[in-house]
Amino acid sequence: PATPDTTQAPVIPATQNPDQNTPQQTDGQTTEPQNENESENDQSENNQNGTNTPTADSPLPENEQTITLQLSFPQQLVNSPVVSPDNVYPQVSIANQPIAMSCCDNNGRWSGSVASTTLLASGSPISIRWYEDFQGQQLELANNMFSTTGLVDSANNAPTVFVTLSGDGYGTSIDSDGDTFDNLSERENGSNPTDGFDFPGSQPSSTDAPAPAIDAAVDVVVPRIDTANAPQIDGAPLAYQAGTTLAGEWAATTQRNRNGQRLNIANLMIDTQGVGLTPHNHHWAMTHDGTWLYLLVISDDAGLQISDSDEERKIWKDDDLEIYFDGNNSKLPNYDGVDDFHLHINLTERLSSTPNHSNNPGARFLQAINSASLPSDLAFSTGLRNGPVSPRPGAGRQDIYEIRIRLSELNITVGQPFGFEVQLNDDDDGGDRDTKWGWKHPVGTATDNDFTWRDPSFMGTVLLLP
């Protein structure tokens, strides 16, 4: 069009952006029932499916206003000496629904069209991720989220409205290989952003032994930090720095898997309330200092923290975190009683709205029935509504779980893979649990879709970098 009607979209600020009746005792902690009756359906990971954005637009309904989005390249990519615009492309979605994009107009902008009702009715922000084809892989370099609030003037009745989204405000803190250096920095410094042992300043000399290859079965590679910079286990407020990348003391943690996908706890295992189509923002992050493992879990629960089930062996009926470890990564079909661990931590203390802290007399946690004995110096702290602001409209601040465990007590060796899984139980209305979400557990709708608590082979695989 000769004179498009353009409106600059606002950028979301970074800070928004079979029971046993007899309980068992182990080290003073009551174990849970033999059959937890825990199981859930699917939430996919934010359009990170490893495929390029389609280049053909989908047909739009007749007689409906069309919004054409025009994307400017992120300024960081424009300024980069190594990134070619010809090798970079965007993936755009609203409420996890992709929008087909095509390249490019005379100003180098990508564009894609969507019906105005689709764009505005969901209330969800527009998610934009820019990828580069790198050594046959899809490498994410930058991301941002744009609010749909005020995006289009309601008085504009033109059949097609053009909206330009600027290249400012993008985040580039995306670390696919978990070595604490973001992908763009590694590209510009000549290191491999998909190899955790190859980072700026790490190139071996001619006498150095080659860096060991990381097994393809490893899902997540976790960087090492100095103990002086380790996160405090205090449940203190956290924020995002860009998109949903963590800021502050958890910024240097691994937040994505080796494919560049965020560590979402998004596989719905149990759903008694029909929330399967509702997007959530549960995710986790991890780091270590050679002695301790540090884990952060963020629960996107819209402030509905429930603790009303006064059953010591079934604390999973309330808002609750489950953590699993297989120290030697044996992935046997049964727990070995040695280094296969399963732990529950409630969000709050018993029948209370008090945050759950390991050093409090009322601390509420549970060694599961099949687990090896829990580490003696486990430390944890929760923060109710102390997490970053959820990207879900109106959901507000999220809940957090912070955990520290000694590696030696888990039989985890730095540089060697171990089994890991994290799951969240959610109760929004009292009584029994409403939903259960997992990271690696397969999705499903059957009430018995819950296997990791009795079969360690369902865990994912993590490796700690030296």
SSE layout:
Blueprint: E1 25-26, E2 29-30, E3 66-71, H1 75-79, E4 88-94, E5 97-99, E6 110-115, H2 116-121, E7 126-134, E8 137-146, E9 160-165, H3 183-189, E10 220-222, E11 240-242, E12 245-246, E13 267-271, E14 283-288, E15 292-299, E16 320-326, E17 340-346, E18 365-367, E19 379-383, E20 399-406, E21 417-426, E22 435-438, E23 460-464
Parallel strand pairs: 3-9, 10-23
Antiparallel strand pairs: 1-2, 3-6, 4-5, 4-7, 7-8, 11-12, 13-22, 14-15, 15-20, 16-17, 16-21, 17-18, 19-20, 21-22, 21-23
Major sheet description: 8 strands, mixed
Strand content: 25-35%
Cα gyration radius (Å): 23 Å
Q: How would you state the average pLDDT, rounded?
A: 79
Helix content: under 10%
How many β-strand runs? Answer: 23
- Low-pLDDT runs: 1-60, 204-210
Q: Specify the overall morphology.
A: globular
Task: Indicate the structural class.
Answer: mainly beta
Order of helices and strands: EEEHEEEHEEEHEEEEEEEEEEEEEE
> What count of helical segments does DSSP give?
3
Distance between the termini: 56 Å
If you had to describe this structure to a student in words, what would you say it looks like?
With 466 residues, the protein is mainly β. It is built from 3 helices and 23 strands. It has helices spanning 75-79, 116-121, 183-189; strands spanning 25-26, 29-30, 66-71, 88-94, 97-99, 110-115, 126-134, 137-146, 160-165, 220-222, 240-242, 245-246, 267-271, 283-288, 292-299, 320-326, 340-346, 365-367, 379-383, 399-406, 417-426, 435-438, 460-464. Strands 10, 13, 16, 17, 18, 21, 22 and 23 form an 8-stranded mixed β-sheet that branches. A hairpin with a 2-residue loop joins strand 7 and strand 8 (137-146). The protein is globular and about 65 Å long.
